[in-house]
Amino acid sequence: MRRLWGRASSSNVMKVLWTLDELGLDYERIDAGGAFGKTKDPAYRAMNPMGLVPTLEEEDGWSLWESNAIARYLCNRYAPSGSLYPAEPRARAKVETWMDWTLGHVTSPMVTIFFTHIRIPEPDRDWKAEGKAREDAGRLFRIVDAQVAASRFLCGDHVTLADLSLGCWVHRWHALPIERPDLPNLARYYEALKTRPGFVKHVALPLE
Question: Quick check: pTM over 0.85?
Answer without folding.
Answer: yes
